[in-house]
Protein backbone atom coordinates (compact mmCIF):
# COMPACT_ATOMS: atom_id res chain seq x y z
CA UNK A 1 0.00 0.00 0.00
CA UNK A 2 1.61 3.26 -0.79
CA UNK A 3 2.23 6.20 1.47
CA UNK A 4 -0.26 7.29 3.93
CA UNK A 5 -2.78 7.45 1.21
CA UNK A 6 -1.80 10.53 -0.80
CA UNK A 7 -3.29 11.68 -4.01
CA UNK A 8 -1.46 10.32 -7.05
CA UNK A 9 -2.81 11.22 -10.49
CA UNK A 10 -2.17 8.47 -13.01
CA UNK A 11 -0.34 9.05 -16.26
CA UNK A 12 -1.58 7.32 -19.39
CA UNK A 13 -1.16 3.61 -18.74
CA UNK A 14 1.95 4.44 -16.74
CA UNK A 15 0.98 1.98 -14.05
CA UNK A 16 3.42 -0.25 -12.22
CA UNK A 17 2.16 -2.67 -9.61
CA UNK A 18 3.99 -2.79 -6.32
CA UNK A 19 4.79 -5.68 -4.02
CA UNK A 20 3.21 -7.41 -1.06
CA UNK A 21 -0.41 -6.36 -0.85
CA UNK A 22 0.34 -3.23 -2.82
CA UNK A 23 -0.60 0.33 -2.36
CA UNK A 24 -3.49 2.57 -1.56
CA UNK A 25 -3.67 6.14 -2.81
CA UNK A 26 -6.81 7.96 -1.73
CA UNK A 27 -7.91 11.35 -2.94
CA UNK A 28 -9.15 14.02 -0.57
CA UNK A 29 -12.77 14.62 -1.63
CA UNK A 30 -13.14 18.01 -3.22
CA UNK A 31 -16.27 19.79 -4.33
CA UNK A 32 -16.15 19.82 -8.12
CA UNK A 33 -18.27 21.10 -10.95
CA UNK A 34 -20.12 18.36 -12.82
CA UNK A 35 -17.89 16.90 -15.53
CA UNK A 36 -18.93 17.46 -19.13
CA UNK A 37 -20.88 14.56 -20.59
CA UNK A 38 -18.06 13.83 -23.04
CA UNK A 39 -15.70 13.20 -20.16
CA UNK A 40 -17.86 10.65 -18.43
CA UNK A 41 -19.01 8.56 -21.36
CA UNK A 42 -17.87 4.99 -21.01
CA UNK A 43 -15.82 2.79 -23.26
CA UNK A 44 -16.21 -0.93 -23.76
CA UNK A 45 -15.63 -2.63 -20.41
CA UNK A 46 -15.89 -6.09 -21.94
CA UNK A 47 -13.15 -5.27 -24.47
CA UNK A 48 -11.02 -3.87 -21.66
CA UNK A 49 -11.37 -7.16 -19.76
CA UNK A 50 -10.54 -9.21 -22.86
CA UNK A 51 -7.37 -7.19 -23.41
CA UNK A 52 -6.43 -7.50 -19.74
CA UNK A 53 -6.88 -11.28 -19.85
CA UNK A 54 -4.25 -11.44 -22.62
CA UNK A 55 -1.57 -9.86 -20.41
CA UNK A 56 1.34 -11.99 -19.24
CA UNK A 57 0.49 -14.05 -16.18
CA UNK A 58 -3.25 -13.27 -16.16
CA UNK A 59 -5.66 -16.21 -15.82
CA UNK A 60 -8.91 -14.25 -15.72
CA UNK A 61 -10.25 -10.72 -15.30
CA UNK A 62 -13.42 -9.07 -14.07
CA UNK A 63 -14.38 -5.41 -13.83
CA UNK A 64 -17.10 -2.79 -13.77
CA UNK A 65 -17.32 0.96 -14.36
CA UNK A 66 -19.74 3.39 -12.70
CA UNK A 67 -20.73 7.03 -13.11
CA UNK A 68 -22.78 8.66 -10.36
CA UNK A 69 -23.51 5.20 -8.99
CA UNK A 70 -24.92 3.86 -12.24
CA UNK A 71 -23.19 1.09 -14.21
CA UNK A 72 -21.79 2.06 -17.60
CA UNK A 73 -20.46 -1.42 -18.25
CA UNK A 74 -19.30 -4.69 -16.69
CA UNK A 75 -17.27 -7.51 -18.15
CA UNK A 76 -15.08 -10.54 -17.63
CA UNK A 77 -12.64 -12.57 -19.69
CA UNK A 78 -10.19 -15.43 -19.45
CA UNK A 79 -11.20 -18.46 -17.42
CA UNK A 80 -12.02 -19.39 -13.84
CA UNK A 81 -9.17 -21.91 -13.69
CA UNK A 82 -5.70 -22.13 -15.18
CA UNK A 83 -5.31 -23.34 -18.73
CA UNK A 84 -8.68 -22.18 -19.97
CA UNK A 85 -10.54 -24.52 -17.64
CA UNK A 86 -13.54 -23.95 -15.39
CA UNK A 87 -15.62 -21.86 -17.75
CA UNK A 88 -16.18 -18.11 -17.77
CA UNK A 89 -15.91 -15.86 -14.73
CA UNK A 90 -19.28 -14.18 -14.02
CA UNK A 91 -18.99 -10.42 -14.55
CA UNK A 92 -20.54 -9.76 -11.13
CA UNK A 93 -18.37 -12.28 -9.28
CA UNK A 94 -16.55 -11.61 -6.05
CA UNK A 95 -12.79 -11.14 -5.74
CA UNK A 96 -10.25 -10.31 -3.05
CA UNK A 97 -9.47 -6.60 -2.85
CA UNK A 98 -6.23 -6.96 -0.85
CA UNK A 99 -4.95 -3.83 0.83
CA UNK A 100 -7.93 -1.79 -0.25
CA UNK A 101 -9.24 -3.34 2.97
CA UNK A 102 -6.96 -1.06 4.98
CA UNK A 103 -8.76 2.15 4.10
CA UNK A 104 -12.04 0.52 5.12
CA UNK A 105 -10.59 -0.53 8.47
CA UNK A 106 -9.11 2.92 9.01
CA UNK A 107 -12.51 4.45 8.23
CA UNK A 108 -14.12 2.33 10.95
CA UNK A 109 -11.37 3.31 13.41
CA UNK A 110 -11.89 6.99 12.63
CA UNK A 111 -15.66 6.65 12.98
CA UNK A 112 -15.01 5.35 16.50
CA UNK A 113 -12.82 8.40 17.08
CA UNK A 114 -15.67 10.62 15.92
CA UNK A 115 -17.96 8.92 18.41
CA UNK A 116 -15.55 9.65 21.24
CA UNK A 117 -14.83 5.96 21.87
CA UNK A 118 -11.21 6.25 20.82
CA UNK A 119 -8.59 8.96 20.31
CA UNK A 120 -6.16 9.31 17.43
CA UNK A 121 -3.39 9.97 19.94
CA UNK A 122 -4.30 7.06 22.21
CA UNK A 123 -1.31 4.80 22.82
CA UNK A 124 -1.13 1.23 21.59
CA UNK A 125 -0.02 -0.03 25.01
CA UNK A 126 -3.14 1.42 26.63
CA UNK A 127 -5.49 0.03 23.99
CA UNK A 128 -3.89 -3.43 23.77
CA UNK A 129 -1.91 -3.94 27.00
CA UNK A 130 -0.94 -7.48 26.00
CA UNK A 131 1.34 -6.30 23.20
CA UNK A 132 3.41 -4.32 25.71
CA UNK A 133 3.24 -6.82 28.55
CA UNK A 134 4.40 -9.65 26.27
CA UNK A 135 6.93 -7.47 24.42
CA UNK A 136 5.24 -8.09 21.07
CA UNK A 137 5.58 -4.50 19.83
CA UNK A 138 8.64 -2.48 20.70
CA UNK A 139 7.87 0.99 22.11
CA UNK A 140 4.15 0.26 22.26
CA UNK A 141 3.80 2.94 24.93
CA UNK A 142 4.79 5.63 22.42
CA UNK A 143 2.93 4.47 19.30
CA UNK A 144 -0.42 6.11 18.56
CA UNK A 145 -3.52 5.21 16.57
CA UNK A 146 -2.73 8.05 14.16
CA UNK A 147 0.74 6.64 13.49
CA UNK A 148 -0.58 3.15 12.78
CA UNK A 149 -3.21 4.49 10.38
CA UNK A 150 -0.57 6.54 8.54
CA UNK A 151 2.18 3.88 8.56
CA UNK A 152 4.49 6.09 10.61
CA UNK A 153 4.66 3.88 13.71
CA UNK A 154 7.98 2.24 12.84
CA UNK A 155 6.46 -1.21 13.51
CA UNK A 156 8.03 -3.76 11.14
CA UNK A 157 5.90 -5.63 8.61
CA UNK A 158 4.92 -9.24 9.36
CA UNK A 159 4.39 -9.84 5.63
CA UNK A 160 7.95 -8.90 4.66
CA UNK A 161 9.60 -11.44 2.40
CA UNK A 162 11.81 -14.30 3.50
CA UNK A 163 15.45 -13.18 3.41
CA UNK A 164 17.64 -14.20 0.49
CA UNK A 165 21.02 -15.89 1.12
CA UNK A 166 22.69 -12.46 0.87
CA UNK A 167 20.44 -11.09 3.59
CA UNK A 168 18.25 -8.97 1.33
CA UNK A 169 14.48 -9.26 1.47
CA UNK A 170 13.07 -11.92 -0.83
CA UNK A 171 9.89 -11.76 -2.87
CA UNK A 172 8.13 -14.65 -1.14
CA UNK A 173 6.09 -13.80 1.98
CA UNK A 174 7.44 -14.74 5.39
CA UNK A 175 4.66 -17.31 5.91
CA UNK A 176 3.64 -20.51 4.12
CA UNK A 177 1.39 -19.39 1.26
CA UNK A 178 0.06 -22.93 0.92
CA UNK A 179 -1.02 -23.34 4.55
CA UNK A 180 -4.76 -23.08 4.04
CA UNK A 181 -5.95 -24.57 7.32
CA UNK A 182 -4.01 -23.26 10.35
CA UNK A 183 -5.98 -20.68 12.29
CA UNK A 184 -3.69 -17.81 13.21
CA UNK A 185 -4.72 -15.23 15.77
CA UNK A 186 -3.87 -11.59 14.98
CA UNK A 187 -1.36 -11.72 17.84
CA UNK A 188 0.40 -14.60 16.07
CA UNK A 189 0.97 -12.35 13.07
CA UNK A 190 2.21 -9.54 15.28
CA UNK A 191 4.74 -11.97 16.79
CA UNK A 192 6.11 -12.67 13.32
CA UNK A 193 7.18 -9.02 13.08
CA UNK A 194 8.88 -8.81 16.48
CA UNK A 195 12.26 -10.18 15.38
CA UNK A 196 12.53 -7.64 12.58
CA UNK A 197 14.18 -4.24 13.13
CA UNK A 198 12.03 -1.17 13.60
CA UNK A 199 11.81 1.08 10.57
CA UNK A 200 12.08 4.40 12.42
CA UNK A 201 11.10 6.45 15.43
CA UNK A 202 7.35 6.63 16.21
CA UNK A 203 5.86 9.33 14.00
CA UNK A 204 9.16 9.97 12.23
CA UNK A 205 8.57 8.67 8.72
CA UNK A 206 6.32 6.61 6.50
CA UNK A 207 7.14 2.91 6.20
CA UNK A 208 4.49 0.49 4.99
CA UNK A 209 3.60 -2.29 7.42
CA UNK A 210 0.70 -4.74 7.43
CA UNK A 211 1.28 -5.11 11.17
CA UNK A 212 -0.18 -1.64 11.73
CA UNK A 213 -3.53 -2.78 10.40
CA UNK A 214 -3.50 -6.15 12.08
CA UNK A 215 -3.21 -4.19 15.33
CA UNK A 216 -5.90 -1.68 14.31
CA UNK A 217 -8.28 -4.56 13.65
CA UNK A 218 -7.62 -5.77 17.18
CA UNK A 219 -8.27 -2.26 18.50
CA UNK A 220 -11.67 -2.15 16.76
CA UNK A 221 -12.63 -5.47 18.33
CA UNK A 222 -11.44 -4.41 21.78
CA UNK A 223 -13.27 -1.07 21.72
CA UNK A 224 -16.55 -2.37 20.26
CA UNK A 225 -16.74 -5.88 21.68
CA UNK A 226 -17.57 -7.16 18.18
CA UNK A 227 -15.41 -8.91 15.63
CA UNK A 228 -14.03 -6.79 12.82
CA UNK A 229 -16.21 -8.44 10.19
CA UNK A 230 -19.36 -7.39 12.05
CA UNK A 231 -18.17 -3.79 12.48
CA UNK A 232 -17.26 -3.48 8.80
CA UNK A 233 -20.66 -4.80 7.83
CA UNK A 234 -22.61 -2.66 10.27
CA UNK A 235 -20.79 0.56 9.52
CA UNK A 236 -19.91 0.27 5.83
CA UNK A 237 -21.12 -2.74 3.89
CA UNK A 238 -24.72 -2.70 5.08
CA UNK A 239 -25.36 1.07 4.95
CA UNK A 240 -23.70 1.42 1.52
CA UNK A 241 -25.61 -1.45 -0.06
CA UNK A 242 -22.48 -3.58 -0.46
CA UNK A 243 -24.55 -6.75 -0.31
CA UNK A 244 -21.88 -9.08 -1.73
CA UNK A 245 -19.00 -7.83 0.43
CA UNK A 246 -17.68 -9.47 3.58
CA UNK A 247 -14.52 -10.11 5.59
CA UNK A 248 -13.65 -13.78 6.09
CA UNK A 249 -11.66 -14.31 9.29
CA UNK A 250 -11.16 -18.05 9.71
CA UNK A 251 -10.04 -20.82 7.36
CA UNK A 252 -11.40 -22.44 5.27
CA UNK A 253 -13.72 -19.48 4.64
CA UNK A 254 -13.02 -18.06 1.19
CA UNK A 255 -14.72 -16.49 -1.81
CA UNK A 256 -18.41 -17.33 -2.15
CA UNK A 257 -19.98 -18.18 -5.51
CA UNK A 258 -18.35 -18.81 -8.89
CA UNK A 259 -15.19 -16.72 -9.29
CA UNK A 260 -11.68 -16.74 -10.68
CA UNK A 261 -8.93 -18.78 -9.05
CA UNK A 262 -5.38 -17.47 -8.61
CA UNK A 263 -2.13 -19.44 -8.61
CA UNK A 264 1.28 -19.13 -6.99
CA UNK A 265 4.43 -21.13 -7.78
CA UNK A 266 5.63 -23.70 -5.26
CA UNK A 267 9.29 -24.44 -4.48
CA UNK A 268 9.57 -26.32 -7.77
CA UNK A 269 8.08 -23.49 -9.78
CA UNK A 270 4.80 -25.32 -10.36
CA UNK A 271 1.70 -23.06 -10.19
CA UNK A 272 -0.58 -24.14 -7.37
CA UNK A 273 -4.15 -23.00 -6.80
CA UNK A 274 -4.23 -20.55 -3.85
CA UNK A 275 -7.93 -19.81 -4.00
CA UNK A 276 -8.24 -21.10 -0.41
CA UNK A 277 -5.73 -18.49 0.82
CA UNK A 278 -5.77 -18.50 4.62
CA UNK A 279 -8.41 -16.01 5.77
CA UNK A 280 -6.89 -15.64 9.23
CA UNK A 281 -3.67 -14.24 7.72
CA UNK A 282 -5.15 -11.50 5.55
CA UNK A 283 -7.73 -10.13 8.00
CA UNK A 284 -7.62 -6.41 8.68
CA UNK A 285 -4.55 -5.96 6.50
CA UNK A 286 -6.11 -7.22 3.28
CA UNK A 287 -8.86 -9.78 3.66
CA UNK A 288 -12.07 -8.17 2.34
CA UNK A 289 -13.89 -9.97 -0.49
CA UNK A 290 -16.02 -7.70 -2.69
CA UNK A 291 -17.26 -6.97 -6.21
CA UNK A 292 -16.69 -4.18 -8.72
CA UNK A 293 -20.09 -2.72 -7.82
CA UNK A 294 -19.53 -2.82 -4.08
CA UNK A 295 -15.98 -1.52 -3.92
CA UNK A 296 -17.02 1.33 -6.24
CA UNK A 297 -19.90 2.17 -3.90
CA UNK A 298 -17.47 2.37 -0.98
CA UNK A 299 -14.96 4.51 -2.84
CA UNK A 300 -17.67 6.86 -4.08
CA UNK A 301 -18.95 7.44 -0.54
CA UNK A 302 -15.46 7.87 0.89
CA UNK A 303 -14.26 10.28 -1.78
CA UNK A 304 -17.40 12.39 -1.49
CA UNK A 305 -16.90 12.75 2.26
CA UNK A 306 -19.96 10.77 3.34
CA UNK A 307 -18.19 8.48 5.81
CA UNK A 308 -15.98 10.80 7.87
CA UNK A 309 -15.86 14.48 8.82
CA UNK A 310 -13.11 16.40 6.98
CA UNK A 311 -10.70 16.67 9.91
CA UNK A 312 -10.70 12.90 10.38
CA UNK A 313 -10.61 12.08 6.69
CA UNK A 314 -7.47 14.17 6.32
CA UNK A 315 -5.67 11.76 8.66
CA UNK A 316 -5.99 9.26 5.84
CA UNK A 317 -5.46 11.54 2.88
CA UNK A 318 -2.79 14.06 3.92
CA UNK A 319 0.80 13.21 3.09
CA UNK A 320 2.63 11.75 6.11
CA UNK A 321 6.01 12.91 7.42
CA UNK A 322 9.08 11.32 5.90
CA UNK A 323 7.30 10.25 2.72
CA UNK A 324 9.72 11.47 0.07
CA UNK A 325 8.35 9.66 -2.92
CA UNK A 326 7.67 12.08 -5.76
CA UNK A 327 4.10 12.96 -6.58
CA UNK A 328 2.92 13.09 -10.18
CA UNK A 329 1.42 16.54 -10.39
CA UNK A 330 0.64 16.48 -14.11
CA UNK A 331 -2.82 16.23 -15.55
CA UNK A 332 -4.29 12.77 -15.56
CA UNK A 333 -6.13 10.82 -18.20
CA UNK A 334 -8.81 12.21 -20.50
CA UNK A 335 -8.19 15.74 -19.23
CA UNK A 336 -9.07 14.79 -15.66
CA UNK A 337 -7.08 13.50 -12.70
CA UNK A 338 -7.79 9.90 -11.82
CA UNK A 339 -6.51 8.21 -8.71
CA UNK A 340 -6.02 4.65 -7.63
CA UNK A 341 -6.27 2.34 -4.68
CA UNK A 342 -5.20 -1.23 -5.04
CA UNK A 343 -4.14 -4.44 -3.41
CA UNK A 344 -2.48 -7.70 -4.28
CA UNK A 345 -1.48 -10.96 -2.71
CA UNK A 346 -0.70 -14.48 -3.82
CA UNK A 347 -2.64 -15.14 -7.02
CA UNK A 348 -4.38 -11.80 -7.57
CA UNK A 349 -4.15 -8.08 -8.26
CA UNK A 350 -7.09 -5.69 -7.77
CA UNK A 351 -7.34 -1.96 -8.46
CA UNK A 352 -9.98 0.74 -8.23
CA UNK A 353 -9.60 3.87 -10.36
CA UNK A 354 -11.67 6.89 -9.37
CA UNK A 355 -12.14 10.60 -10.01
CA UNK A 356 -11.48 13.20 -7.36
CA UNK A 357 -15.10 14.31 -7.31
CA UNK A 358 -16.25 10.75 -6.63
CA UNK A 359 -18.41 10.56 -9.74
CA UNK A 360 -16.45 7.90 -11.64
CA UNK A 361 -15.08 4.52 -10.55
CA UNK A 362 -13.62 1.58 -12.42
CA UNK A 363 -12.93 -1.49 -10.26
CA UNK A 364 -11.01 -4.37 -11.77
CA UNK A 365 -9.42 -7.63 -10.63
CA UNK A 366 -7.09 -10.12 -12.28
CA UNK A 367 -6.29 -13.63 -11.12
CA UNK A 368 -2.68 -14.54 -11.77
CA UNK A 369 -0.56 -17.59 -12.51
CA UNK A 370 2.70 -16.43 -10.92
CA UNK A 371 4.48 -13.91 -8.70
CA UNK A 372 4.99 -11.13 -11.24
CA UNK A 373 2.22 -8.51 -11.15
CA UNK A 374 3.87 -5.99 -13.48
CA UNK A 375 2.21 -7.21 -16.68
CA UNK A 376 -1.22 -7.20 -15.06
CA UNK A 377 -0.60 -3.77 -13.55
CA UNK A 378 0.34 -2.21 -16.87
CA UNK A 379 -2.64 -3.89 -18.54
CA UNK A 380 -4.99 -2.50 -15.88
CA UNK A 381 -3.80 1.00 -16.72
CA UNK A 382 -4.62 0.35 -20.37
CA UNK A 383 -8.00 -1.11 -19.41
CA UNK A 384 -8.78 2.08 -17.50
CA UNK A 385 -8.01 4.09 -20.64
CA UNK A 386 -10.27 1.86 -22.73
CA UNK A 387 -13.09 2.49 -20.27
CA UNK A 388 -12.63 6.19 -19.48
CA UNK A 389 -10.93 7.43 -22.67
CA UNK A 390 -12.91 5.84 -25.51
CA UNK A 391 -11.74 6.92 -28.93
CA UNK A 392 -13.98 9.48 -30.57
Structure overview:
Its EC number is 3.-.-.-. Residues 1-32 form the signal peptide. Residues 46-371 form the Beta-lactamase-related domain. This is Serine hydrolase domain-containing protein. Keywords: Hydrolase, Signal. By secondary structure, the chain is of the alpha+beta class. It has a single domain, classed as DD-peptidase/beta-lactamase superfamily (Beta-lactamase), CATH 3.40.710. 30% of the residues lie in helices and 14% in strands. The chain has a five-stranded antiparallel sheet with strand order 2-1-9-8-7, with helices on both faces. Strand 4 and strand 5 form a beta hairpin. Helix 3 packs parallel to helix 8 (210-224). The longest helix is centred in the first third of the chain and has 15 residues, at 100-114. It is globular and about 55 Å long. The two termini are 35 Å apart. The model is unreliable at 1-7, 11-39 and 327-331 (pLDDT under 50).
Short description:
With 392 residues, the chain is α+β, with helices and mostly antiparallel strands.
